[in-house]
Amino acid sequence: MKKIAVLTSGGDAPGMNACIRSIVLTADHYELEVIGYKDGYNGLIDQEFKLLVPANVTNIIQRGGTILKSGRCDDFHTEESGRAAAKNLQDLNVDALLVIGGNGSFRGAHHLCKYYKGQVIGLPGTIDNDISGTDATIGYYTAIETALDPIDKVRDTADAFERIFLIEVMGRHAGFIALNAAVASAVDRVVVPEACNDIDLEVDNIIEHLHAVYSQQGISSYIVVMSENLLPGGGNVAGENAH
Ligand SMILES: Nc1ncnc2c1ncn2[C@@H]1O[C@H](COP(=O)(O)OP(=O)(O)OP(=O)(O)O)[C@@H](O)[C@H]1O
Ligand SMILES: O=P(O)(O)OC[C@H]1O[C@](O)(CO)[C@@H](O)[C@@H]1O
């Protein structure tokens, strides 16, 4: 193997840069050439890439985002795009493509395998932690830490003003961030997509619980953590409706 390519795809995740750095430095050690495709599968289809050498990855280990940029690419679902991507890799004599991304990006990698004869390797990089067979994806622990900070701060205000707060965190289809941030911050209630079939019923349950907590314990603040996108219109609309 003489040449490899790397791309970052889907939502950016902290640690993607550290991962790119490791790939480039390891490849340099084994005397492999590395190219980086821009904007996820968009760059692969458009043949937009740059050569990556150790100088390109200096001082990026601590930086969020991704130096290759990321992107979602609806076109990549088609056979035509799969074939175009494979041709682009073959034209450049790329022996292996490394995809850093989440479950969707892995599906994309699988799609590419139908047309590309080289190796395709997935590196699980997503804040959502929703890749089977991986204990913790790249970026997941940082995402929990990031969510915890505002939750802890909101607790101060909830207590001081005797208020109810609903905090939405990322994870549109996966509740790992919500669940673990909620447990770590000991909030009153957590709602995750995996355990929520009926959001109206869920809201009714929360209101019932809130009343019970108020009357039984006299607690005057209450915090709910919820995965984004569960409430149609978001937390503000739900709050208005609850009034
Ligand atoms: N079935 C599929 N076939 C081909 N390509 C796909 C498929 N599913 C996803 N992709 C490609 O992977 C890209 C990223 O997928 P997606 O938006 O689901 O993010 P992800 O990798 O799951 O990361 P995250 O969930 O952290 O945002 C898509 O925009 C698309 O280009
Ligand atoms: O708004 P977009 O681009 O669809 O991204 C949101 C999704 O991406 C993620 O942030 C993953 O990176 C999910 O938590 C969320 O569901």
TrEMBL record:
- Reported EC number(s) for this entry are 2.7.1.11
What is this protein's name? 6-phosphofructokinase
Phosphofructokinase domain mapped to chain residues: 3-230
Cofactor(s) this protein requires: Mg(2+)
Keyword set includes Kinase? yes
Q: Where is the signal peptide?
A: none
Q: Which InterPro entries match?
A: ATP_PFK (IPR022953), Phosphofructokinase_dom (IPR000023), PKF_sf (IPR035966)
Keyword field contains DNA-binding: no
CC per GO annotation: 6-phosphofructokinase complex
Q: Which PANTHER family match?
A: ATP-DEPENDENT 6-PHOSPHOFRUCTOKINASE, PHOSPHOFRUCTOKINASE
Pathway(s) served: Carbohydrate degradation; glycolysis; D-glyceraldehyde 3-phosphate and glycerone phosphate from D-glucose: step 3/4
Q: Which reaction does it catalyse?
A: beta-D-fructose 6-phosphate + ATP = beta-D-fructose 1,6-bisphosphate + ADP + H(+)
Q: Which domain of life is it from?
A: Bacteria
GO BP annotation list: canonical glycolysis; fructose 1,6-bisphosphate metabolic process; fructose 6-phosphate metabolic process
Please state where this protein is localized.
Answer: Cytoplasm
Provide the GO MF annotations for this entry: 6-phosphofructokinase activity; AMP binding; ATP binding; fructose-6-phosphate binding; identical protein binding; metal ion binding; monosaccharide binding
Keyword terms, alphabetized: ATP-binding, Cytoplasm, Glycolysis, Kinase, Magnesium, Metal-binding, Nucleotide-binding, Transferase
